[in-house]
């Protein structure tokens, strides 16, 4: 990295969607989406800064900023202009002396690291209820003294994402009490953990390309010795790469730096559905 080179920087947006679904009523769905934006610097940048103690200021613009709420820039490292007219983009610049001090400290703590991640922004995404959830859920229990029928309906929702990406490693986990003695009519196949008394469905990915465009149902009947069961929340997990729920993007302003990579991903946090 010579003095004239543009320095490579990577950015990553990581978002977590928390959702609670109640029965089949979409108006009762509660959603909270949080996110963070991290910049990554190659380890060699500390040498560059040592040789160039007054580097160009790193300035960037966050696009679709109006979709965000409760934005917390890193107070040690970021400054922003609050007089900007355009609500949809927001410009930030990095306090370079503080960044150089921070990276020097990290390089001394982690001499083996090839790059250094630095938290820049934490935020919440303004959510529109069930429309903001990438996987809509409805769960139905029928609890009799001798048996429990469980039905889970799910629907992949492209409207929640900027780019329609697959949900990966999707897991549906439900505890079933009441002394389960036998499983019947389990569709698609699932894993029953007798010790923990819970059933787990695993679907490698759900997307528009899935059967029925990502709309499906999970069914099971449980024979009981100590029924009836008491309905428990369904817990769902998934991850996703290549898109965010906020639609946020980033671009550099001014010279001296270039983005080597911009990563976007989101995952389920507390993602629950009740009867």
Automatic annotation (TrEMBL):
Superkingdom of origin organism: Eukaryota
Annotated InterPro entries: AP2_Mu_C_sf (IPR036168), MHD (IPR028565), Muniscin_C (IPR018808), SGIP1_MHD (IPR037984)
Compartments, as annotated in UniProt: Membrane, Clathrin-coated pit
Entry keyword annotation includes Nucleus: no
Keywords, sorted A to Z: Coated pit, Endocytosis, Membrane, Phosphoprotein
Membrane topology of this protein: Peripheral membrane protein
Entry's Gene Ontology cellular component terms: clathrin-coated pit; clathrin-coated vesicle; plasma membrane; presynapse
Domain MHD stretches: 6-274
Keyword Lipid metabolism: no
Oligomer and partners: Interacts with proteins essential or regulating the formation of functional clathrin-coated pits. Interacts with CANX. Interacts with AP2A1. Interacts with EPS15. Interacts with SH3GL3. Interacts with AMPH. Interacts with ITSN1 (via SH3 domains). Interacts with and REPS1.
Biological function: May function in clathrin-mediated endocytosis. Has both a membrane binding/tubulating activity and the ability to recruit proteins essential to the formation of functional clathrin-coated pits. Has a preference for membranes enriched in phosphatidylserine and phosphoinositides and is required for the endocytosis of the transferrin receptor. May also bind tubulin. May play a role in the regulation of energy homeostasis.
Protein name: SH3-containing GRB2-like protein 3-interacting protein 1
